[in-house]
């Protein structure tokens, strides 16, 4: 939200009160409290009348400093609030006549005692950012709405990333961003998943701990500052020191939560009925048979909205006209080794029997006059489940348990974005702050049911809405996009941006959602989709089985589905890292190469895990330009090499794309390509790429529960490439060098390969 008219003037009707100095400083229980008047105090009489801001500085964990500013403390709503870790570590506090300082780990904040206001954040002897004059304060707009505001300096060359799922350019500089969940598709500035957290290439991140609408002006109102503001009387933000982007993400997710590890089966191919298409059990069976007949591995079958009766979403009752025997159908699908996912949402249509049941029990969201909140969007007379009520959550969860008992394995938790603010929540939560937070309660309710019924390691969602903390509840997908190359690119930008907010697992609709994709779009999207963390064929008004496009589509889908299955020892290892450290499986190039300025703005390519570079082809003719960081990289698909740093221009067929292995990497591949969940250690092959003399690398092959199944050490000394098993049960395994040298070990613990002099 912009308050200024240029640099000096405020917009008409706007009144400002900025912190002028740290006039009064006290220390208590590890907190540095500052009273900052909004006008200069030259004599005693100046302390009468006018706002004074209370600024509390503290630390929830090492290398993180919390800044909480309050105007009227009695006007701050108590709920909802994000669940943020607070260890209250030992800090160093120093106060003298010139400044007050608090240090946590390597991060220090210093507040100047006299005018003008100045609060600086530094680490390692280097200033990261600062709040200077006319930065921290309060604003009143022409309608007398009250806002708290802060501005942090952007240094020359400093770039900003993050703020949730955003479909525009990855670098946020010059953008105005409102943290406000809405259902707007992938081609607009609004987003389904809004996260008030950003990080910069200067070694720090900023998390604004406010669940409601936070407005960011990223070098847009004042080009040398990031401004953030929120309506109300309090504003809290946390400065998170890195110094690397990966370190920042590790600390941010340590504060707000890390992803649960999804089950290995969820990494296979999902096939959907699509949305408004006609389907029944015969249609579903024909799709499943068609996949099997064409040797296309399938892991999950998804039933979209019309598994239920029209006008009654969601009442969790199968439409008897098209699915007269749902239990039998699910049993038959399970006998074929498939998992089953059902579409749900948090709304109750008025035609459903559950509407009267929920209204009578008080489980539906109400207006201030006590009536049930309703409108005719999506479903006629729809109401919303009030997830702030424990009883309503249990009521909703009970409906899901019946489906799980029937054989359902996962839920697609659609919607949850456009939550009204003219309502009263059961727990008294502030409606404006609950708007985004609702998505967390909704998805948490469903995830908890799955974890309780299936076990924590078996719970997986396909969620669209999210906010801070939502990363704990994977998987998320990018929402409704068109079936074009442009939409494919914007979907990728959204996923990379979301990953920079700690979301480890992300997917998208292969082929696009709206419209029927051209066969070229479909085939290119298949390669991108199977080289994403999760892979789903889904559309709106048309089916997404590949033979409806052309026979080459079948071949392309088969090749990339089987490639992903073979890569599962590596990919599931990256998934385990995402759960343990908060680093996304699909990583923006800047996250892995923060010192390579060539990677700063890249948003059409990514690292899949730590060692695979993927550049989706966004054209029908196969022409692509992509960037290769320093070193000799190896093409995974044919073993040829590419040397960086620099840009490459290439042309690829539909069965190919730039898929490069990082120099010095060891990629573990599995012995099976027909499913994603198998014993990864049995028959695993360790592929060493551009392994330098003297290098050593430890490779952990995960079990299906995420624990280590086998651990290997790969090293090179002169012309000897050596691997040894450090732990794990004896099982056949192989070592292969990128230059095609290979050796196998039935059950022994050591393998050596002799390399030629040029290698």
UniProtKB/TrEMBL annotation:
Keywords, in A-Z order: Glycosidase, Hydrolase
Source organism per UniProt: Nonomuraea composti
Record's signal peptide: none
Family: Belongs to the glycosyl hydrolase 31 family.
EC number: 3.2.1.177
InterPro entries associated with the record: Alpha-glycosidase_related, Gal_mutarotase_sf_dom, GH, Glyco_hydro_31_C, Glyco_hydro_31_N_dom, Glyco_hydro_31_TIM, Glyco_hydro_b
Domain Glycosyl hydrolase family 31 C-terminal: 582-667
CDD domains, per the entry: GH31_N, GH31_xylosidase_YicI
Glycoside hydrolase family 31 TIM barrel domain ranges (all copies): 259-573
Record domain Glycoside hydrolase family 31 N-terminal: where: 55-217
Protein name as annotated: Alpha-xylosidase
Pfam families found in the cross-reference section: Gal_mutarotas_2 (PF13802), Glyco_hydro_31_2nd (PF01055), Glyco_hydro_31_3rd (PF21365)
């Amino acid at each position: 939200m912009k308050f200024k008219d240029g640099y000096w003037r405020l917009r008409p009707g706007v009144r400002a009160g900025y912190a002028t100095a740290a006039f009064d400083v006290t220390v208590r229980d590890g907190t540095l409290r500052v009273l900052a008047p909004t006008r200069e105090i030259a004599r005693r009489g100046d302390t009468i009348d006018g706002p004074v801001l209370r600024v509390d500085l503290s630390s929830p964990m090492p290398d993180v400093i919390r800044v909480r500013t309050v105007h009227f403390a009695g006007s701050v709503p108590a709920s909802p609030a994000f669940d943020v870790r607070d260890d209250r570590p030992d800090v160093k506090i120093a106060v003298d006549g010139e400044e007050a300082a608090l240090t946590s780990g390597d991060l220090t904040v210093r507040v100047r005692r006299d005018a003008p206001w100045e609060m600086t954040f530094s680490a390692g002897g280097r200033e990261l950012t600062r709040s200077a004059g006319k930065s921290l304060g309060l604003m009143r707009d022409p309608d007398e709405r009250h806002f708290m505001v802060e501005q942090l300096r952007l240094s020359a060359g400093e770039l900003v990333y993050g703020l949730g799922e955003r479909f525009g350019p990855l670098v946020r500089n010059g953008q105005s961003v409102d943290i406000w969940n809405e259902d707007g598709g992938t081609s607009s500035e609004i987003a389904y998943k809004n996260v008030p957290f950003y990080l910069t290439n200067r070694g720090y991140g900023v998390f604004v701990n406010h669940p409601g609408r936070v407005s960011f002006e990223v070098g847009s109102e004042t080009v040398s500052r990031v401004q953030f503001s929120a309506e109300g009387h309090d504003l809290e933000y946390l400065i998170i020191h890195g110094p690397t982007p990966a370190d920042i993400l590790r600390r941010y997710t340590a504060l707000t939560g890390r992803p649960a590890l999804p089950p290995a089966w969820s990494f296979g191919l999902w096939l959907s009925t699509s949305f408004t298409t006609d389907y029944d059990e015969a249609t579903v069976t024909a799709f499943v048979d068609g996949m099997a007949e064409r040797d296309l591995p399938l892991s999950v079958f998804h039933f979209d909205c019309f598994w239920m009766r029209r006008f009654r979403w969601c009442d969790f009752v199968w439409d008897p006209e098209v699915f007269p025997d749902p239990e039998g159908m699910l049993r038959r699908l399970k006998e074929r080794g498939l998992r089953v996912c059902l579409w749900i949402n948090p709304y109750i249509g008025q035609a459903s029997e559950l509407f009267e049941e929920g209204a009578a029990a008080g489980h539906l969201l109400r207006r201030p006059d006590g009536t049930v909140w309703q409108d005719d969007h999506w479903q006629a007379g729809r109401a919303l489940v009030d997830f702030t009520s424990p009883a309503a959550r249990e009521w909703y969860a009970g409906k899901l348990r019946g489906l799980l008992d029937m054989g359902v394995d996962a839920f697609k938790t659609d919607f949850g974005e456009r939550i009204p603010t003219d309502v009263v929540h059961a727990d008294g939560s502030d409606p404006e702050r609950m708007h985004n937070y609702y998505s967390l309660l909704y998805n948490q309710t469903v995830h908890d049911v799955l974890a309780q019924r299936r076990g924590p390691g078996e719970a997986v969602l396909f969620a669209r809405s999210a906010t801070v903390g939502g990363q704990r509840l994977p998987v998320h997908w990018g929402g409704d996009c068109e079936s074009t190359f442009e939409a494919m690119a914007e979907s990728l930008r959204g996923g990379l941006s979301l990953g920079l907010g700690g979301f480890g697992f992300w997917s998208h609709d292969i082929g696009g959602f709206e419209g029927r994709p051209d066969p070229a779009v479909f085939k290119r999207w298949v390669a991108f989709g199977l080289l994403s963390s999760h892979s789903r064929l889904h559309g709106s008004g048309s089916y997404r089985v590949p033979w409806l496009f052309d026979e080459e589509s079948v071949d392309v889908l088969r090749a990339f589905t089987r490639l992903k299955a073979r890569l599962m020892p590596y990919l599931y290892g990256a998934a385990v890292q995402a759960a343990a450290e908060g680093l996304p499986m699909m990583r923006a190039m800047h996250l892995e190469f923060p010192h390579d300025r060539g990677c700063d703005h890249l948003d059409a390519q990514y690292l899949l895990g730590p060692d695979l570079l993927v550049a989706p082809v966004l054209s029908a003719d196969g022409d692509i330009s992509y960037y290769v960081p320093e070193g000799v990289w190896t093409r995974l698909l044919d073993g040829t090499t590419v040397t960086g740093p620099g840009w490459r221009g290439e042309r690829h067929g539909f069965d190919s794309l730039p898929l490069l292995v990082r120099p010095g990497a060891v990629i573990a591949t599995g012995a099976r390509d027909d499913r994603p969940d198998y014993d990864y250690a049995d028959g695993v092959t360790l592929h060493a790429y551009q392994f330098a003399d003297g290098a050593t690398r430890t490779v952990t092959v995960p079990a299906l529960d995420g624990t280590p199944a086998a651990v290997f050490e790969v090293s090179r000394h002169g012309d000897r490439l050596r691997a040894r098993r450090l732990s794990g049960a004896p099982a056949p395994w192989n070592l292969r060098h990128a230059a095609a040298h290979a050796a196998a070990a039935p059950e022994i613990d050591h393998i050596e390969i002799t390399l030629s002099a040029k290698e």
